[in-house]
Every structure is written in C-alpha cells, then in structure tokens.
Amino acid sequence: MLNWKTDLCILLAGLALTLFGCSPASVSDIPARNWKMSVVTNEDSSWTKGARLFADLVKQRSGGQIQIAVFPNGELAGGNQVKELTMLQDGSIDFTYHSNLLYSNLDQSFAAISMPWLFTDYSQVDAALSGPAGSQLLKAAEDQGIVGLAYGENGFRQLTNGRLAVRSPDDLHGLKIRIPDVELYNSIYKAMGAIPVAMNFGEVIGALKQEQIDGQENPIDIIVSSKLYEVQNHITVWNYSYDALILGMNKKDWDGLPGTAQAIIKQAASEASKEQVRLSRDAARTQLSLLRDKGMTITELTPDQVKAFRATTDPVYAEWSSKIDPSIKKLWETRSLSE
User: Fold this and answer.
1) Selection from 162, 169, 335 nearest residue 177 by Cα
2) 3-state SS assignment for residue 27
C-alpha cells in the first residue's frame, strides 16, 4: 500500500507533467526498464493502437528510460487469454489490455459491468466507470497482483453466426456460440437457449471453418479486425453486453518504481486509453457498412425484439446477485432506468 508521501509525489509529478511536460531533472531518478505489453488482438485493432500509443508516451516522458515492447495476437501466451492474465500476475508480462470479463475469473465482481442489457448507451457506461464502482473495481485488481491503470473499451458485443438471421430467442435455440472462458457468458447464453462453447479467441476462425461452432459474439471492431466476415454471413446488432478493457500492470513492477515514474505511467495510460476508446467507438459507428459490403446480412433489433431477449436473461441477475460485491452491484440500478 502506498503511503501518503508517495501519493503526494505521484500527484505533484502528474501535475508537473500536465503543466510543463517532462524535464530531464524530473526523470533523473527513473530506473531503466525494458518491459513487455501483450494484447490478444491483431495489429489493426484499437487495442494494439492504444497499447502502442501508451508505450510511445511512456518512452517519451521517461526520457527513454522505460521502453515497452507491444506484442499483438496474444503471441506471448500462445493466444490463450486466461494464460496471458496469469502471466501478468506473475510478472512474465508487464502490461496487458484485458477485458473485465477475464478479470471476473479472478474476482466475480468484475462481471458486474457486463451483465446483459445493463447499459443502453455510452453515456451510461462512462458515468458508471468514472464513478465509485468503477474506481473500486480498478482498486480490486491489486488484490490479484495487478494495478489497474485505466479503462479502455472493447465495446458493446454483437452476435455473428453462419446459419440464420437471429431476431428472436427461438432463432438462437440450439446454436453453438463461442464465448470467452468466463462463467457469466455461460449463464447468459444458456438462459437464452443457445449452447455456449468456451474457447480461446485464437481458435475461433478454425472452429468456424470446421463447423465446430455456429457463431461467436464480439464487438464490431474485433469482428472487422479479425476478418470474421470471411467465415460468418449474419450479424445481429443487439448491444447485449458491454465489455470494458483494463490496462493492467504487474503490481511488483509498479511498486518498484519511484513516484515520478508511476505518475508518468498513470497519465500515459489514461491518455492512451481515452484514444483507444475513441477509436473503438468510431469503429462501431462506421464499420457496419464495411460488413455489409463484405456480404454480411445485418439484423439490427428493434426495442421490442431486444425486450424479448432481455426477458430471458432475468434469471442471470438472480443467479449472480450473491456473487457481486453489494457496492459494485449498485451499477445494476442503471438497468431499471433503461426499462
């Protein structure tokens, strides 16, 4: 736990960075570091672009003392997102962008953000993540050996499949849908009548080609950057779950830094993640037309169609109520406002 002197140092250093930039004197106490950052997505994704901006800002503001190499495609962990997060915890990887969904394997309260049809728009998301519950979740990562530096965005998740246009819960019944290896999504898809299949993202394209699964769910940016349109011909736009990213740092690495370096990293994480969020949202607004041009049938659900799906997931809230910290569960008040 940081003491008040260190906290004050971080605050003053951050203020100096904001007002004056980084002078040679302010970085003279920063030890040289060569670190690794891993993201599971490819070079074209907003994740990798945000990670590279973060690395550039840290290098510049630390006077070149802190160098961060970015590894896309999850190559450091063989495409295994769960292993990648474990490697962040043990220090084999120093930084990652990871979905809050993967963090829910460590602490189920992280799933609170991604409950089905919790948020209807970005303004609700931003208010939640910038509020007490969002701050508490970032702080909770420290109990897992990770410092949560900032929130990025994976976005609202959509459904793709290779069989039919999904407009009603009946259409979803019996479809094998790949999900990330998280308990919440297993609950959601079972409640909606689908067959959830947990699978590493790196295996999805091959499984779709071999018809081991019928479909998958992801935000539009991932669907486009991973070229899922080459193996799927239907997309249902339903914004069923919001997926935040957490720019996490190994806690031992963090604790080994002086306050000036911590301030540089914290501010760079905030700025880079804001840009990553912007890129993600721009993609969500513009890339549907690209998917249409690639031959996908786009089904945008009406409010009444969403209501039918949403009703099937009421039991998920009941199931997860006891698994979420009560103060974090206050986020669920948003859902009643959206009804």
Assistant:
1) 162
2) helix
Mean predicted confidence (pLDDT) in 119-133? 94
Distance, CA of 288 to CA of 165 (rounded, Å): 15
Binning pLDDT at 50, 70 and 90, where does residue 337 land? low
By DSSP bridging, strand 242-250 and strand 95-99 are antiparallel
pLDDT of 336 over the 90 cut: no
CATH architecture for segment(s) 32-323: 3-Layer(aba) Sandwich (3.40)
The predicted-structure confidence for 143-178, as pLDDT tens digits, reads as follows 999 999 999 999 999 999 999 999 999 999 999 999
Domain boundaries, the chain: 32-323
Tracing tokens 């979803």 back to the chain, one arrives at: 172
Q: At what angle do helices 122-129 and 132-140 cross, to 10 degrees?
A: 60
* Ramachandran area for residue 303 (φ above 0: left; ψ -120 to 50: alpha; else beta): alpha
Q: What predicted TM-score, i.e. pTM, was given to this entire model?
A: 0.87
Q: How far apart are CA 49 and CA 275, in angstroms?
A: 9
Contact yes or no for 87/38 (Cβ under 8 A): yes
Q: What is the DSSP string of 169-191?
A: HHHHTT-EEEE-S-HHHHHHHHH
